[in-house]
Design goal:
The structure holds 2 protein chains of 2 kinds.
Chain A: H1 2-7, H2 9-31, H3 36-68, H4 73-113, E1 117-126, E2 134-137, E3 150-153, E4 156-164, E5 169-173, E6 180-185, E7 191-196, E8 202-205, E9 218-221, E10 233-241, E11 248-253, E12 262-268, H5 310-324, H6 374-377, H7 382-386, H8 397-400, H9 421-426, H10 459-463, H11 479-483, H12 509-518
Antiparallel strand pairs in A: 1-2, 1-12, 2-5, 3-4, 3-12, 4-5, 6-7, 6-9, 7-8, 8-11, 9-10, 10-11
Helix pairs in contact in A: 5-12
Chain B: H1 23-43, H2 52-64, H3 67-83, H4 91-109, H5 115-141, H6 149-171
Helix pairs in contact in B: 1-2, 1-3, 2-3, 2-4, 2-6, 3-4, 4-5, 5-6
The chains are: A alpha+beta, B mainly alpha.
Chain lengths: 527, 177
């Protein structure tokens, strides 16, 4: 037996191995589950080696790709950089094209919506001087451009034409040191004179130190300079520093912030309204006027603006009054009975021959007699406000928000206001011609600062919230009214102020001049 | 034994000299062959025709000139190959067991260091391997596989050529006599 096994050992082993594998195969095929450990052993033996080989292969491949096959990376990098530069240039060009299109569209929209008649122009050159901020535009006298016209963009004013040639015009930019324009602040409605400094920022002069101007406040053109119509954006107040007698206010011009390529030249400027600034003050209750007071009766005819300045209108009113009472100003000896100013036509009413204006909507501003609140009580009477549309009238939230004040309440005991009231009417574009507010004023020189007389700061008037912006100092003729309810003119210095009345202040020079022209002494007492 | 290009048949079994290999060779070479089978076609699909485990089994079988060693090598390599497939264990095992046995049997009679003998052995055993696998698949597993003689013959020839080169490389791993 042993020899038999030795003799057929090989075939026996073969058969045993084949049989074992057949059994293994049969088990695997029948039960669909084979001897798992064989697979585990094989996989465990093969996969680590495969992982090593894969790692070696990956490393080799990475080495090849990163170090050997990157011999042309430098050239490719240069090519890509050149391509990037080309795309950057193309991008800049396309952005410029887009900006140009945007500006053209903005100009077109602005031109279509602004009431002023404009002509579009493109800046073609700058001034030769190193310090001058002057540019040339491609519109000249052939296009109707004249010296002194305003140049604006949808963002704000840009400058003014200082020289007009047939095919081009020279524009003095707002940032030039010789530039000046009358401006008004959005919230406080304070007037001032904008001046260039030769730097990107401008300053606003002639704003009294007691005025409240805050950084971030918008500045608009006031129309006082007879160059820029009222209501055009000028810029934003960047800094306000105290000073004596005027504040130092720096303004960031908005018209030149986005560069200057295309501008609009105002061929015929039309005054616009200045947007109302939100007010955070609380409404104050003001009692209705007492009955039976004749002076409290509102005028039947609503006042309208006179064609001239406030001074002209006031002078005509006082002259009319003097003629009615056979009083000649300046020719009466001392002790002569002064004219009865209580019979003065409705303060702020139109001068003879003027057309009546529509009745005011907010005549509730006439307060009770001399309320302690000087800002409200000493304000202009209702007729004054009636001449001023609410849109243009600086907001007096204290009064407007008073629900107890009936519409049309008579301005009883505030005769102080008459002189101030005409000022309001001048701010009304509805009742005054475009330049009515500044008619008669000294026009600002084309080159140089606007004379202070054009937009003099009248703190007394401006401090009154009800007073309109840009009220000229002609309000001083009514100074006697501040001394008390009586309308008898008297020197304010000698008369003690009425309780609650605001302290009398000296009128500015322009007011004095206007008073003298009207025959009214500085104190408001006619001779 | 001295190599003679003219003699391909051994006159007696005593003329045949058993080649000896180190132990790691019996472990590493089949492992690398299986790795080649499962790894290289991943990157070079056209190399999937190579049946490296079969060539390794044939080589070790004919060089060891021992039928038991041949069938055991064939069985282990076949089972390992089965383990890396989705087929039941034993298909490649049985086929390669038989290949190893017959290759060792042939190696006893032939001068297996002759290049032509190696080429013919490689060609024949590839055909035998593929045919036996086809038969077993149909008989034991009931799979309806087709057997393309022409394609199989071409692949057998390619494997035989590669086998000759592989056998020449594996000869370097033999222990000197």
């Amino acid at each position: 037996m042993e020899s038999l096994l030795n003799r057929y050992r090989n075939i026996t082993v073969l058969l045993l191995v084949i049989m074992a594998q057949l059994v293994l195969l049969a088990v695997s095929a029948k039960n669909d589950q084979d001897v798992r450990f064989i697979r585990i052993w094989t996989v465990t033996a093969v996969t680590p080696v495969a992982r090593i080989i894969e790692g070696f292969r990956g490393g080799s491949t990475g080495f090849l790709q990163n170090y050997i096959l990157l011999h042309d990376t430098r050239q490719e990098n240069q090519r890509l950089r050149a391509e990037l530069d080309r795309y950057k240039m193309e991008n800049v060009f396309l952005r410029n094209e887009l900006n140009t299109a945007d500006r053209a569209k903005a100009l077109q929209v602005f031109q279509a919506h602004t009431p002023s008649k404009t002509v579009a122009a493109t800046i073609i050159a700058t001034g030769a001087g190193s310090n001058s901020k002057v540019v040339f535009v491609d519109r000249g006298t052939a296009s109707g451009v004249q010296r002194g016209m305003a140049v604006v963009t949808p963002d704000g004013i840009v400058g003014k034409v200082i020289a007009a040639y047939p095919t081009a015009s020279q524009v003095l930019l707002i940032t030039d040191a010789d530039f000046a324009a009358g401006v008004i602040f959005e919230k406080s409605q304070v007037h001032g004179t904008l001046k260039g400094q030769g730097t990107p920022q401008c300053k606003v002069d002639y704003v009294a130190f007691e005025e409240k101007v805050e950084p971030g406040e918008w500045v608009y053109t006031s129309g006082d300079d007879r160059i820029f119509p009222r209501g055009f954006r000028v810029g934003i107040v960047k800094a306000v520093r105290p000073g004596q007698p005027f504040k130092e206010i720096l303004v960031d011009p908005s018209g030149t912030q986005r560069g200057l390529d295309d501008v609009l030249i105002l061929i015929e400027g039309v005054h616009q309204r200045i947007p109302d600034a939100p007010s955070g003050s609380q409404p104050i209750y003001i009692a209705p006027a007492p009955p039976g007071n004749d002076s409290a009766k509102p005028a039947d005819a609503a006042p309208v603006a006179s064609p001239g300045t406030e001074a002209d209108r006031l002078r005509s009113q006082y002259q009319t009054l003097g003629e009615e009472q056979k009083h000649t100003y300046g020719e009466n000896p001392p002790g002569t009975k002064p004219p009865d100013f209580t019979k003065l036509p409705n303060p702020g009413a139109a001068a003879p021959g003027q057309a009546p204006a529509p009745a005011p909507a907010n005549r509730t501003t006439s307060p009770a007699p001399a309320p302690p609140n000087g800002g409200a009580a000493g304000q202009a009477p209702a007729p004054t406000k009636s001449a001023v549309p609410p849109a243009v009238t600086p907001p007096n939230p204290e009064v407007r928000k008073n629900p107890a004040s009936p519409p049309g309440a008579p301005p009883v005991t505030t005769p102080v206001a008459p002189p101030k009231t005409p000022a309001k009417s001048t701010t009304s574009p509805a009742t005054a011609p475009p330049n009515a507010g500044t008619a008669g004023q000294a026009p600002a020189p084309t080159k140089g600062a606007v004379p202070p007389a054009v937009t003099p700061p009248n703190p007394e008037v401006r401090k009154n919230p009800a007073s309109p912006p840009g009220a000229p100092p002609v309000a001083t003729p009514t100074a006697p009214a501040k001394t008390g309810p009586a309308v008898q003119p008297s020197r304010p210095a000698k008369n003690p102020p009425a309780p609650g009345a605001p302290p009398a202040k000296n009128p500015p020079d322009a007011a004095r001049r206007l008073n003298q022209a009207a025959g009214v002494p500085p104190g408001g007492q006619p001779h | 034994m001295t190599y003679s290009g003219e003699r391909i048949l051994l006159s007696s079994q005593r003329e045949g000299q058993v080649s000896r290999f180190r132990a790691w060779v019996f472990l590493a070479v089949p492992l690398l062959a299986i790795l080649f089978q499962v790894y290289v076609p991943r990157f070079f699909p056209f190399l999937s025709f190579l049946e490296m485990p079969l060539l390794v089994v044939v080589y070790f079988a004919i060089m060891r000139r021992n039928q038991v060693s041949g069938l055991m090598i064939g069985a282990l390599v076949g089972l390992a190959q089965d383990s890396l497939t989705n087929n039941p264990l034993g298909m490649f095992g049985i086929v390669k067991t038989l290949v190893g046995y017959f290759a060792a049997s042939v190696g006893v009679r032939l001068d297996v260091e002759h290049g032509l003998i190696r080429l013919l052995l490689g060609f024949f055993f590839y055909l035998f391997h593929q045919f036996l696998y086809w038969v077993m698949s149909r008989a034991l597993l009931g799979q309806q596989m087709t057997f393309d003689w022409q394609r199989t013959a071409v692949l057998a020839a390619l494997n035989a050529v590669v086998g000759v080169a592989l056998f020449h490389l594996l000869d370097k791993l033999r222990e000197p006599a």
